[in-house]
Structure formats: structure tokens, C-alpha cells
Design goal:
- The complex is a heterodimer.
- By secondary structure, chain A is mostly helical.
- Chain A is 74% helix and 3% strand.
- Chain A has a single domain, classed as MetI-like (MetI-like fold), CATH 1.10.3720.
- In chain A, helix 13 packs antiparallel against helix 14.
- Chain B folds into two domains: 183 residues, D-Maltodextrin-Binding Protein, domain 2 (3-Layer(aba) Sandwich), CATH 3.40.190; 201 residues, Periplasmic binding protein-like II (D-Maltodextrin-Binding Protein, domain 2, 3-Layer(aba) Sandwich), CATH 3.40.190.10.
- Helices cover 46% and strands 12% of the residues of chain B.
- Chain B contains 16 helices and ten strands.
- In chain B, the strands form four sheets. A three-stranded antiparallel sheet of chain B has the order 3-9-4. A three-stranded antiparallel sheet of chain B has the order 6-5-7. Chain B has a two-stranded parallel ribbon with strand order 1-2.
- In chain B, strand 1, helix 2 and strand 2 form a beta-alpha-beta unit.
- In chain B, helix 2 packs antiparallel against helix 13, helix 10 crosses helix 11 and helix 15 packs antiparallel against helix 16.
- The longest helix of chain B has 30 residues.
- Classes of the chains: A mainly alpha, B alpha/beta.
- At the A-B interface, helix 12 and helix 13 of A face helix 3, helix 10 and helix 15 of B.
Chain lengths: 313, 432
């Protein structure tokens, strides 16, 4: 019985591959470039898109520049200048307040809406789509809408507050109110993300756990505290960290709504980095600010990896 | 038989593929013989709602039909950030840029703007055929840009609100102050003064552009030296600061809610009727009118310490990137864009074009061109240009915060001056 040509060819290929395997087994110390070759495009993209800009910013932080032209190496002078300035520490406190406040708002709103809509059937699904709406909007659109809503001259929000007999004040024009208002808007924009993640986690909780609590005579609070919250906590934690990283680098809302003012009350580290790059002649100190943001984000990222178990696989 | 047909098919396909590839490679080479000039502008040719964009397209089309060997590629850059980055980093493109008078010093400081004096002289562009002589556009005696249009601050006001309050358009700051009592308690802002940082290039640009660039320099004085040092006196600053603080406090003509306003909020307040008046840029007049202002919106020359004082105008200019690969073609384009012919087309878009001779075009006899003609006369009669600092956005940030502190925290004008000088000098020293 003759072997068809195709089958012969396949067998030859298989034999060739088999011999490769045998070679590799025979010579475990033999170095092969082929695995690296396959990874080259991914490594190249990673280097060009992520590593090179990061390394360049680190390099820039030790330089004096004239706009984007490197003028000379300055050692740690930029770091000393930035870390000694009181404005930097004020900005850091504002950034951390912004991140913490926005996160608290988004988690509370997101969890509340997830809990309410989780068992609301078709109505819940429909409402979820509407609630997702802010998350789908561009940040500049969100900023413009809220700028109008909060306008102390003709905005609906101050109007309602005034009708309630309370002086609405200057809203975004008040140095004491601008940051809390930006925090509220950020939380409003991002809470749907928490809702989606929390809903997904809630829906994967086995019903038996709730039944067990019921059998033990536990009420709604016990169910929430010992089943829902316990089961969704890892998801909630990783969601919170993702949002924290995003809040720390977010600045579109601030650019549109306050421009960092009034009196620098909404100037965050990322906004300062952006403004410094646009305005400053020597952008070395701005690079230092960017590195501070990077360090905080790397720390949060490491925490995120640990929490989600990705670091250990 | 089948095998032969297959081979023929493969050969034919291969020949077709190679032919197509060669054609695709050769064709662009043939077209590439024409020069391409990248023109950075904030006007988007696809924006059918902006008549200035349509006028710009007309100008470019007219240029290309006269110069078929030069192709203009428009780089839309609404905020100017792309041009700023390109010039600061010494990029080859864009070849030709548009830059405001306030930004020229900053761009020139990079050393990447082409000096145009010799080219202007060689081609005989008459220096006195501009609304303000071309010498005003020079920086330290050097010409880096040529004005395309001029912008003088004007008073925007709502006729119905002024009639209701029984006031006429003010010509002096004292008259502005007196308006507060006439308007009394009202939801409307009688006269808005923007101290906010939103919109524009950054910082309190609206405050600087519309009010302080005129109030701070003495009449006939300067704003900054060519090295970027502050040229106005402490006395003039305190006088201006007291005037503005007075609007917010003693005059009660400017409520505190106006302090938050930047460019965009001021625009919104004027179009919605939230503000009865403000000094604003004439380039926004037709937009505010077409949005909600309608016939109720009117304009008058901006108030000053004395009626008919000089007003600081700034121009939108055109310049050439020194790193451009084809400076000759770039100059051919720039020369056309500031020619009376191109300027007459630009005027149809609503600009107060810079060349005097363009105003003989039939458009200016029409109803549409009436306001522009009057504004051009205002520029000639009351216009003055200033030297700006190379760190203008930084200056506007510091200036805005000093004024905000004075108004919102009841600081003194002297403290505002000290804050400005201390922070600005430090910023300038760092920049240098």
C-alpha cells in the first residue's frame, strides 16, 4: 500500500520536529535564539511605548533644559528644588485628598447602586445601562456639563440651593469648595465602574451562602457583612486600586472646570506636571513631579498585583 | 493541462502584483516633486459653521492655484499646543505657524523662528500698510512674525439690560463703577471681571488680555522689557488693582461670582445674559451674537482711565519655522497670506485684517463688514502694541492668583504687587 504524498510530507515534518526535540533534550545547555525572536516584537513595543519614555523622564529629571533641549546635567538639583518647595507638598496633599475623596465617593455610590440593582431583575439591568452613562462620557464633556450645572450665576445646582434658603457661595470659585466639588464630580463620573465590578462579583456569590445565613437566623445586615462584603472584597480592592491610579493621573476635569484654581486649591501633581511641561522653560523639575506620580502609581500597582494574586500567579 | 494553466495564472498574478507595486512606488515619487508646506492653524477647514475656516480655505485654494508647485497641508491645532511643542523641540514641521502677539516672545526665545526683516525688505512689503506699523511687531528690533489680523478689546453689552438700568455704555472706569448703583440688587452681573484660569493658553489670560495689558502699562509705556522683565511701575499696578478690587467691593458692579470666570465662562455669561457687560475680544463678538446675543448684543469701545486712552491690541501673526526644510516655499506662502488679496478673503470670515489696503475691498461696503471697518478704525486710533514676556502663561497664572487672593481673601493691592513681583522674578530667573 502506497502512502499518499501529503501524508509523507506530514510525516517528514513530524520527524523533523521530533529530531529538534531530541536535539534539545540531548543538549540541554545548547542556547537557542528562537524563543527570544518570537518575543522580540512584544519587547520592542514595550520598550518603545513604556520603557523608553519612562527612562527618558528619569534621565530628564537629572537635567536642566531649555524647553525640550537638554542644556546640562544637574545631578540631584531638580529633586532638591522640588522636594524643598512648600508648593510641592501642598500639591501632594491636594492630590492625595482628591484620590481619597473621589475613591470614597465612588465606592460608596457604586456599592449602593450595585446592591440596589443586583436583585432588581430586568428593571435592574435597564437601570444599570442608564447608570453607566456618566462613565461612557468624555471627561471634557463631563467637565463642561458640571461647569454649567455649578455656575453660580445661572447654574441649576446653586439655584436649587438658594431656593432652599442656603447661600450657595461661589461654588467652583471658592477656594474652600472647589476641591470638594471636583471630588464629587469625579466620584459621579467613575462610580458606575465600581457598580459594574461589584455587580459582577456579587453575581458569582453562591446562593447557598445566603441560605446558610438564613438557616442560622441571620438578617440582611449579616448577609451583607459576612457574605456579600467578604466575597466581593478582593474585587473591590483591586477596583479601588485601579481607580486610585487613574485618579492620580487624571487632569482633564481639572483643566476644564478650574484650571487648577482658585488659588491653586485644585492643583494636583498630574496637573502640575502638565502645566509645568507647557509653561516652564526648564522642565527638569516637572520631570521630578512626574516621577513622584510614577512612584506612587508603582506602589499602588504592586499592591494591586499582590491583591489580585498576579505577582505570584 | 491544468498544471500549465495554474502556472500561467500564478505567473500572471505575480506580474500583476509586481507591476502594481512598482506603480505604487513610482507614482508618489512623481507627485512628490511638488513642495509640501505644513501650515499650523487653529481654524479647522472642516468646520462649516465658522466663516473664518471657509475664508482660510479660500485663501489656501487661491494660493495653490497661483503656485501649483506648492501644496499646503493644514495642521489643525486648536489650542496652539502642537505648534508650541514643535517650535520648542526644534521640529522641522509645521513649516508655517500662526501665533498670537502674546506668544511671539516665548516662541522667539527658542531661537526657532525665522527672522523675516530681509525677506520683507527684499519683496517690498510696505511697512506702513498695516493698521499698526510693522515696526510694532518687532521684538528687540527683529521681525519674526507678520500680523494677519488685529484684536482690540471692546465692551460687549446687552442693550435691554442697560436700558432697564438706565445706563449708557461707560467710557471710563469711574463710569463702570457708577453702574453698580444703577443696577442695584440683581441676578445679573453688571460688569464681569474674569479672574479665573479656565480657557485660553493658561492662567488668568482673559484678565491679562482684556484688562491688565492696558491698565498696567502707563499710557505710552511698556508692559515688559525685551528681556522679559516687568516694565510697569508699582504705582500703576496698585492703581489697577484698586480699580478692579473696587468693582468687586465698593462699586458693587462686579459680584464675587465673576471671580471664577475665565475665557469660557465669560463667553457663556455674555451669550446667556448672565452678565450685562464685559470687556472681551472682538473676535468673539459675532459668535456671541449668533448664539444667544442676537440684536440685544451691542458693542462700544472699551472703557479706560480716561475716554480715548490707548488700548493694548494684539495681533494674530504668521511666522516661519527656522527648521523648515523649505523656507523659500514657506515664505512664498506667508507673503501671499499677508497680501491685500488674501487679506480681503480673510475679512469675509470676520477678521479685522491687518493690511490697510485690504479695506478697499467691496466686502467692507456691505452691512456684514461694517463692524470690522469700525474696529479697524478703532485699532488705528486707539491701538497700541506691547512687548510680552517669554513666560506669558506662567505670568498669567501668577497674576491671576495674586488678584484672586486680593479679591477673595481681602488682600491689599500692595500685597498683590509684592506677590506678583516675588513669584514672577523667581519664575523668570529659573527660565533664564
Amino acid at each position: 500500500m502506497s502512502i499518499p504524498p501529503l501524508q509523507v510530507s506530514t510525516n517528514q515534518g513530524a520527524a523533523h520536529l521530533a529530531s529538534d526535540v531530541v536535539d534539545a533534550t540531548d543538549n540541554p545547555n545548547r542556547f537557542s535564539w528562537s524563543p527570544f525572536l518570537w518575543f522580540t516584537p512584544a519587547i520592542l513595543i514595550l520598550f518603545l511605548v513604556t520603557l523608553y519614555p519612562t527612562i527618558f523622564v528619569i534621565w530628564l529629571s537629572f537635567q536642566k533644559t531649555k524647553y525640550y533641549e537638554l542644556v546640562g546635567f544637574t545631578g540631584l538639583a531638580n529633586y532638591v528644588e522640588v522636594l524643598r518647595s512648600s508648593e510641592f507638598w501642598d500639591t501632594t496633599i491636594i492630590s492625595l485628598t482628591y484620590v481619597g475623596g473621589s475613591l470614597a465617593g465612588a465606592i460608596v455610590l457604586g456599592m449602593a447602586s450595585a446592591l440596589v440593582l443586583n436583585r432588581a431583575g430586568v428593571t435592574g439591568s435597564t437601570l444599570r445601562v442608564f447608570i453607566l452613562f456618566p462613565w461612557t462620557l468624555s471627561m471634557s464633556v463631563v467637565g463642561s456639563i458640571w461647569l454649567w450645572l455649578l455656575n453660580p450665576s445661572f447654574g441649576p445646582v446653586p439655584y436649587v440651593i438658594q431656593k432652599l434658603g442656603i447661600d450657595p457661595g461661589l461654588m467652583l470659585g471658592d477656594p474652600g469648595m472647589a476641591l470638594p466639588l471636583i471630588i464629587i464630580v469625579t466620584a459621579w463620573w467613575s462610580f458606575p465602574y465600581v457598580m459594574v465590578m461589584a455587580t459582577a462579583a456579587m453575581q458569582s456569590i453562591p446562593k447557598e451562602l445566603y441560605e446558610a445565613v438564613e438557616i442560622d437566623g441571620g438578617g440582611a445586615f449579616v448577609k451583607f457583612r459576612y457574605v456579600t462584603l467578604t466575597e466581593i472584597l478582593p474585587t473591590l480592592g483591586s477596583t479601588a486600586l485601579t481607580l486610585s491610579i487613574m485618579y492620580l493621573t487624571l487632569m482633564t476635569l481639572i483643566i476644564v472646570m478650574t484650571g487648577g484654581g482658585p488659588l491653586g486649591s485644585t492643583t494636583t501633581l498630574s496637573f502640575e506636571a502638565f502645566r509645568g511641561t507647557v509653561q516652564a522653560v526648564n522642565i527638569g523639575p516637572t520631570a521630578v513631579v512626574s516621577i513622584v506620580v510614577l512612584i506612587i502609581n508603582v506602589a499602588l500597582g504592586a499592591l494591586y498585583s499582590r491583591l489580585t494574586g498576579r505577582a505570584t500567579g | 493541462m491544468h498544471t500549465i494553466l495554474k502556472r500561467k495564472l500564478i505567473k500572471s498574478s505575480a506580474a500583476l502584483a509586481i507591476g502594481t507595486a512598482i506603480f505604487a512606488f513610482v507614482t508618489p515619487q512623481a507627485f512628490a516633486e511638488s513642495t509640501k508646506i505644513v501650515y499650523q492653524t487653529y481654524l479647522d477647514p472642516n468646520n462649516s459653521k465658522d466663516p473664518r475656516s471657509a475664508a482660510q480655505t479660500k485663501m489656501i485654494d487661491a494660493f495653490q492655484s497661483k503656485n501649483p508647485d506648492i501644496k499646503i497641508e493644514v495642521l489643525v491645532d486648536s489650542t496652539g499646543a502642537t505648534a508650541s511643542r514643535a517650535i520648542k523641540s526644534g521640529s522641522q514641521t509645521p513649516d508655517v505657524i500662526r501665533v498670537t502677539g502674546q506668544g511671539v516672545a516665548e516662541f522667539a526665545a527658542t531661537g526657532n523662528l525665522l527672522q523675516l526683516d530681509d525677506l520683507v525688505k527684499k519683496d517690498g512689503i510696505p511697512e506702513d500698510d498695516f493698521l499698526l506699523p510693522l515696526s510694532n511687531a518687532r521684538l528687540g528690533g527683529k521681525l519674526f512674525v507678520i500680523p494677519q489680523d488685529f484684536r482690540i478689546p471692546i465692551l460687549f453689552y446687552r442693550k435691554s439690560m442697560f436700558e432697564k438700568a438706565g445706563v449708557k455704555p461707560p467710557t471710563t472706569w469711574d463710569e463702570v463703577c457708577a453702574m453698580g448703583a444703577k443696577f442695584g440688587q440683581s441676578d445679573v452681573i453688571p460688569f464681569a471681571v474674569p479672574l479665573g484660569a479656565t480657557g485660553g493658553l493658561g492662567g488668568a489670560q482673559a484678565l491679562g488680555e482684556f484688562l491688565l495689558s492696558t491698565m498696567l502699562p502707563e499710557q505710552g509705556g511698556q508692559y515688559f522689557t525685551s528681556e522679559g522683565k516687568i516694565a510697569f511701575s508699582k504705582e500703576s499696578f496698585i492703581k489697577a488693582a484698586e480699580t478692579i478690587k473696587g468693582f468687586y467691593t465698593t462699586c458693587k458692579v462686579t459680584p464675587l461670582r465673576s471671580a471664577q470666570m475665565g475665557f469660557n465662562e465669560l463667553h457663556d455669561a455674555l451669550r446667556s445674559g448672565g452678565a450685562a457687560s464685559a470687556v472681551f475680544g472682538l473676535y468673539r463678538y459675532k459668535t456671541v451674537q449668533s448664539q444667544l446675543g442676537g440684536d440685544d448684543l451691542a458693542w462700544a469701545p472699551a472703557p479706560a482711565y480716561s475716554a480715548n486712552d490707548k488700548q493694548t491690541v494684539y495681533s494674530y501673526n504668521i511666522g516661519i519655522n527656522k527648521k523648515s526644510a523649505d523656507q523659500e516655499a514657506a515664505w512664498t506662502f506667508v507673503k501671499y497670506m499677508v497680501s491685500p488679496e488674501a487679506q480681503a478673503l480673510a475679512a469675509e470670515g470676520g477678521e479685522v485684517v491687518s493690511r490697510k489696503s485690504a479695506y478697499s475691498a467691496p466686502y467692507f461696503q456691505s452691512e456684514a463688514g461694517k463692524d470690522q471697518k469700525k474696529w479697524s478704525e478703532l485699532v488705528i486710533q486707539r491701538g497700541q502694541t506691547m512687548t510680552y514676556t517669554p513666560i506669558i502663561t506662567n505670568y498669567h497664572t501668577i497674576l491671576g492668583e495674586a488678584f484672586q487672593r486680593m479679591v477673595l481673601k481681602d488682600g491689599s493691592p500692595a500685597d498683590a504687587y509684592d506677590e506678583l513681583i516675588k513669584r514672577y522674578d523667581a519664575a523668570l530667573a529659573k527660565a533664564q
